[in-house]
Structures are given as structure tokens and as C-alpha cells.
Design brief:
eight-stranded antiparallel sheet; five-stranded antiparallel sheet; elongated
Length: 703
């Protein structure tokens, strides 16, 4: 083939047959049918070949009869519908398929958003990048044209054996073909979008091709009309051949390029060795995948994009798992010693970052992903021991003595500013306490970074107290160039200190386009002991002052945070130590020295010492009503404004605010004024040398 077609609507049946190597023994019947000019039989025989070929092997295989339910929940990342996974993927797929069939309503991945497409499909989703950017969110179309709902219809058919599902599948398939034909308007090897008036980026085209391939490992293509099944194959060829354009494209970092230029060509070449043009893409695709692992994952296992969701859920879950597992399934070598080593380290970190709840913390873009499916990927792809151990603990099985002994060796602490995290916990059970701090060096520019230097996440007794409650909602809902988008990326939505009450740059500068150049936040000291950890880190992002944060985490009692602003009296405005409390956390009392916070029957004392301060309880009212409908539904924020002493006005001084967060759930003592002052004095004394080895032994407590 000398030219790559531009218009999906113009491709001919013969283009598809010509793409296959019909000299292969298994395709001999197809060749013979074409020789006798029996096009109908040739299509039928090609579909039959797809039904019965023994290799290559896909991520799953439900082609055989009798019809059996599709297991979506053992490894949800085998299905594109797992995007935004929040529970059983089987239940979600059945819900998606039924809403589409019964109401013509499209439910987007994750389930939070839906669109009625009209009784006669008159409301199909569209997005013109020239005209609609900044007015509506592009993800509605971007998700639609990835075609993941076709998976859901297959799941429904296998679950119910209802022939009506097949009838609807044919209708929906034809509507999709008619509504979203791909017409290439940007054919350059550097293209990131193929089409602009109907926004079709290269990434979503690759996803659609993979979804189409997956359909042939269900019964559906073999039980609908042969003509329509052949039309799916025709689209696989047309979409797939577009990736031949990238043979001369230059390398670019981050997961879009890894998927588009590496993984999709590798998948196409692996799953269709009968198509020479696809087969020729495979080796280059593998090289690009391995280069991305070596350059995007550092030796510590950290990822270039400082976002747990995009690191674990996107790069590892949605992308790398597919190609590593496909290579394993088909006896191919994909990973070398170095790439395997880096992925083993990344699963080590993901194991160490496990919180007590079901999800990872929401650090960076998107919701924190469900963690058990991520740990399962560590077992499936790398046979990762720590992932297997933690899964066994979390799933509550009765461990063998050997497994119990292994479980005791699991570390409770992790610290690496190359990876980007300081983390500690009391255990791996559901009622454990847990702390994580964002601290990373050499972030560079990442589309999924946030300005979250030294931001903290805290869970006590299994209750999430401090975090980022709205990051996921914002990410999926806000329009480009919206002030709320800037707020999501900027410091005010995180749990850090705003020097002089302001972020480094205003929200507005992060509102348009992608990419955050996040300042380094190196860890300067770290110690792990039986009772907890001490760590210190800083950032110089402001350029005229330094924020240093020391933390002392006691596994059973709580957390001490000491925030210091060096050259903290250049301006008159106070600094703000900010804590975004999670939904369900209630501030039941507050003064300038303390606050009481309750959640789900547990009680916690927040006690401050150090610089003069003013404690206030606020709410992120800018989210109402675009993100949160009612003000009453907002979680509280604790803002502590602190400043230098008046007598230090003409000096260069360091302004320090200390915070003790103490678990007082089981205490029978009343918090009298004298008791609070005594506790405050102990906090002040302890914070003079938090790094001292005995600091954890003298951590405050109430009887």
C-alpha cells in the first residue's frame, strides 16, 4: 500500500482484503472465495477465521459456545469501561447497556455524567475544537468516540442471552458509523489530532481501534449480520493504518505518546500478524514503549507525571498492563532487565502508598483510583510479592503461617522525593491511620501535576480527615479557561501553606491549556522507627521566602506539623496554613488555639502553637453551584492565618506555626483550658527539636 486513506467513508471492501496476507494457510478459503468473486462468502469466511483462530491470544476470550458471562471484575483493566472505576465493573457495564437500550442515554465512564442522545439519536454528542473550547467540556465527545459502551452491550448480551441486545447493537453500531466517520484533516507524522471540527485526537482513535478488536473476543460479532461484523473489521483496518503515519515521528515524553506511537502499534501488530502493515509496526512500537518506561519511570519507580491516578490508573493500568500482558500471552519479550526493574519499583511504591480505604489519595489530576485492581495488576504483570501480600491482608482471608510471617515484613513507611512521596501508616487494615505528603524533585512540566508542594493527606482510625475532596469532580466537569480549572491546579485547593496568604501565581494562569511547572520540594531529613516517622522537606517556589514543613507521625496518636516560613515578614499580610477537610468531617468547636473535629464517631483535637494566629472555618464557595449544587453540601476548610511578631517587623525572621492533630476518641478527660494550655506548651517544646530520636516517645497523649 503506497498511500494511507483519509476518509473512513471512502474505504472499500477490497481495501480490507488487500491488507491481509491471503497466502497464509488459514486464509486460504478467503482467497479462494475472492478468486471466484464471491465477496459475500469471502466476508463470511474472514469472520469465521476471526472466530476460530487459535492465536494470537487477547486479554480475554469469550468466543466459544455455550454463551458464558464475561468476567469483568477479576481484572477490570482489561476493559476500557474501567475508566473512573468506583465499584463492580459488571454492574456498571450492565447499567450502561440498559440505559442506552431503554432510554437512549449514554452514561460516561465513571457513571457521574450522562447524556440523553434522543429518541431518534438526534442529540448525539459533538465538539468542535475551534468553536466549543471553553464553552463545554470536550470529554463528553472524547469518551463517546472511544466506543467503550460497545463493551457494555457485549457484557449485557453474554449475561442475558437476549437476542434483542444483538438487534440494538446493530442499530447502535450503524448510528455510530454514520455519526462519527473519521476524516483525517491533519495527516502530519506529528499529529496529536486527526480531526478538529469533530474533535478526534490520536489517543481516542487508538482506544476505539482497541475496543473494536476486543469485540472479536466476544460472541457478538459472530451472531450479528456478517456485513456489520465485516464493517467493524474495516474500521479496525482504517483506524489502525493511520498509525503507520507515525513511523517517522520524533519522540515525545508522557503517556499520550507512549500510547499512540508505542502501544497501539504494538497491539495492532500483535493482534493482527496477518496484516503485514500492522505486523511491521510492532517492533518499533515495542521500542517506544520500553523507551517511555526508561524515561518516564525513574530508577526509584517514580513517574514523570506527579498524579497517582495518571501514574497508576492511566500509565500502568489502562496502558502498560495491556501490552505487557499481551506480550506474555503471546510468548513475546517486551521488557528487558531495566524496564522490568523500574516497573517492579513502581509497584513497590504503589504497594507502600496503600491507604486504609478503597482508593488511593486524590493527588494530582483525577480521582484516586481503586487500589485493589492496581495491586492485582502488580501480581498479573510482575508477579509482585508485596502487592500479593497486601491484597491477601485487605481481602481478609485466613493467612497461612508463612503468609502471616511474610505480612509482618511489609514496611509501614516510605520516603523518596524521586518518587514524590513521604508516607507512613499504622498498618494495612481498614481501621489504620495513614499520612502522605507530596514531595518531589525534577517534576518538569506535566499536564497532570498540581501546585501541591508539601500538601498533606491524613486518615485517622480509617476515617479520611484531610485530603482533596473535589479534585475528581473538578477534573471531569470544569471547562478549559475556567477560573475553577485554575483553582484545581493551584495551591489554594491543597493542604499546604500560602505564604503571605497567596499562591505563587494566581489561579488564572493555570486555567487555560495543559501543563504545570511544579517547583522542587526536596526531602532533607527522614527517619523511620517503630512508633512512626519524622520527615522534613521544603520548597523555594515563591523565590522570596522558603516554606519548610516538618512532620512527626505517630502511628497510634496522631500527627505534628511544623510549618516555617523563612523571611516570613517581608509583607504585612499573614500566611495561611490550609486544611481541606473531607466530607463527613465536622468542626464542632474552634478557637484561635484549637479546633475539635469529629467524623463517624471518632474525635480529633487540632491544637496550634507558635506564631500569633487566627483560626477560621471557611468553605470553598466558589464551587457552588457549578460543581457542588448547594453551599450546605460543602466540606469545611480550616484556615489558620499566622504572622510574625510586631517587634520583629524590621528583622529577617522565620515565622513558625505548629499543629498537633491528636486522636482523643478514647480519652475520658475533659479538655479544660488548663489542659489545652499544658498540651500547647508540650507541643511548643517538642517542636524545638522534632527530629530528635526521643520525639516519638514524648508525643503528646491524653489518658
Amino acid at each position: 500500500m503506497h498511500s494511507i486513506p483519509l476518509d473512513e467513508r471512502a474505504i472499500k471492501d477490497q481495501d480490507v482484503f488487500s491488507a491481509f496476507d491471503l497466502s497464509l494457510p488459514g486464509l486460504k478459503p478467503v482467497r479462494e472465495a475472492l478468486d471466484r468473486q464471491d465477496l459475500k462468502d469471502a466476508k463470511k469466511l474472514l469472520i469465521r477465521y476471526m472466530e476460530h483462530r487459535g492465536s494470537p491470544r487477547f486479554l480475554f476470550d469469550y468466543r466459544s459456545l455455550p454463551l458464558t458471562p464475561i468476567d469483568t471484575d477479576t481484572c477490570p483493566y482489561s476493559f476500557q469501561s474501567s475508566l473512573g472505576l468506583s465499584g463492580s465493573l459488571k454492574e456498571f457495564c450492565l447499567h450502561v447497556a440498559r440505559k442506552l437500550m431503554e432510554e437512549h442515554t449514554y452514561v460516561l465512564p465513571g457513571g457521574d455524567r450522562q447524556v440523553n442522545l434522543g429518541k431518534n439519536w438526534e442529540n448525539m454528542i459533538h465538539f468542535n475544537i475551534y468553536e466549543d473550547t471553553g464553552k463545554i467540556h470536550r470529554s463528553y465527545l472524547d469518551m463517546m468516540v472511544r466506543g467503550q459502551f460497545f463493551e457494555s452491550l457485549c457484557v449485557l448480551y453474554h449475561e442475558t442471552k437476549d437476542a434483542g441486545v444483538l438487534d440494538f447493537f446493530e442499530e447502535m453500531l450503524q448510528v455510530f458509523f454514520d455519526t462519527y466517520p473519521l476524516v483525517i484533516t491533519h495527516a502530519d507524522p506529528s499529529a496529536d489530532r486527526f480531526q478538529y471540527t469533530e474533535d478526534r485526537d490520536v489517543m481516542s482513535v487508538g482506544w476505539l481501534a482497541v475496543v473494536y478488536i476486543s469485540l472479536f473476543y466476544t460472541r457478538v460479532p459472530y451472531e450479528i449480520s456478517t456485513e456489520l461484523s465485516f464493517e467493524i473489521l474495516k474500521r479496525i483496518w482504517f483506524l489502525g493504518i493511520q498509525f503507520k503515519r507515525f513511523a517517522t515521528d520524533s519522540y515525545r515524553p508522557y503517556n499520550h505518546h507512549m500510547w499512540e506511537r508505542g502501544m497501539v502499534p504494538f497491539i495492532l501488530g500483535t493482534m493482527f500478524p496477518e496484516i503485514p502493515d500492522f505486523k511491521a509496526m510492532r517492533d518499533r512500537g515495542a521500542l517506544i514503549v520500553c523507551r517511555h518506561i526508561k524515561e518516564d519511570f525513574n530508577e526509584a519507580g517514580g513517574y514523570s507525571e506527579h498524579s497517582i491516578a495518571y501514574w497508576s490508573g492511566a500509565a500502568v493500568g489502562e496502558m502498560l498492563y495491556r501490552v505487557i500482558y499481551l506480550a506474555r500471552q503471546n510468548g513475546e519479550n517486551l521488557l528487558d532487565e531495566e524496564t522490568a526493574g523500574r516497573l517492579n519499583e513502581t509497584f513497590h511504591i504503589l504497594a507502600m502508598l496503600c491507604p486504609p480505604g478503597k482508593r488511593y489519595p486524590t493527588l494530582g489530576d483525577n480521582n484516586g483510583p481503586l487500589l485493589e485492581p492496581i495491586l492485582d495488576l502488580g501480581v498479573r504483570t510482575m508477579d509482585h510479592r508485596e502487592c500479593r501480600q497486601i491484597l491477601a491482608i485487605r481481602r481478609g482471608g485466613a493467612p497461612s503461617p508463612e503468609r502471616q510471617k511474610e505480612g509482618e515484613t511489609l514496611p509501614l513507611d516510605f520516603c523518596s522525593h524521586h518518587a514524590g512521596f513521604v508516607c507512613s501508616k499504622s498498618g494495612y487494615g481498614p481501621d489504620s491511620s495513614y499520612m502522605m505528603m507530596s514531595a518531589k524533585i525534577r517534576c518538569g512540566c506535566s499536564g497532570h501535576n498540581h501546585m501541591d508542594m508539601l500538601s498533606l493527606f491524613l486518615t485517622m482510625r480509617g476515617r479520611e480527615l484531610i485530603g482533596e475532596p473535589y479534585s475528581g469532580l473538578l477534573y471531569h466537569s470544569i471547562r478549559m479557561n475556567s477560573d475553577l480549572r485554575g483553582y484545581m491546579y493551584n495551591m489554594p485547593s491543597h493542604n499546604t501553606v500560602l505564604a503571605y496568604g497567596r499562591p505563587i501565581a494566581p489561579n488564572r494562569v493555570y486555567a487555560n491549556k495543559w501543563g504545570v511547572y511544579r517547583p522542587d520540594s526536596p526531602v532533607t531529613a527522614y527517619r523511620s522507627g517503630q512508633k512512626g516517622i519524622y520527615a522534613s522537606a521544603y520548597h523555594d517556589g515563591y523565590t522570596f521566602c522558603r516554606h519548610t514543613r516538618e512532620i512527626l507521625f505517630h502511628r497510634e496518636r496522631g500527627l505534628i506539623v511544623s510549618d516555617r516560613i523563612m523571611r516570613g515578614n517581608r509583607l504585612d499580610e499573614p500566611h495561611i496554613q490550609r486544611w481541606n477537610l473531607m466530607p463527613g468531617a465536622l468542626v464542632t468547636a474552634a478557637g484561635d488555639d484549637f479546633a475539635l473535629v469529629e467524623k463517624e464517631g471518632a474525635r480529633f483535637l487540632f491544637l496550634w502553637s507558635g506564631a500569633p494566629r487566627r483560626v477560621s472555618v471557611t468553605h470553598p464557595e466558589l464551587l457552588v453551584p457549578e460543581i457542588i449544587p448547594e453551599k450546605e453540601d460543602l466540606a469545611p476548610i480550616l484556615d489558620i492565618a499566622f504572622h510574625a511578631l510586631e517587634e520583629d517587623r524590621n528583622k529577617n525572621v522565620t515565622v513558625t506555626l505548629n499543629l498537633l492533630i491528636l486522636d482523643i476518641t478514647d480519652s475520658s478527660q475533659a479538655l479544660s483550658e488548663n489542659k489545652l494550655k499544658d498540651m500547647q506548651a508540650r507541643l511548643e517544646a517538642l517542636c524545638k527539636d522534632l527530629k530528635a530520636p526521643q520525639a516519638l516517645d514524648t508525643f503528646p497523649c491524653l489518658p
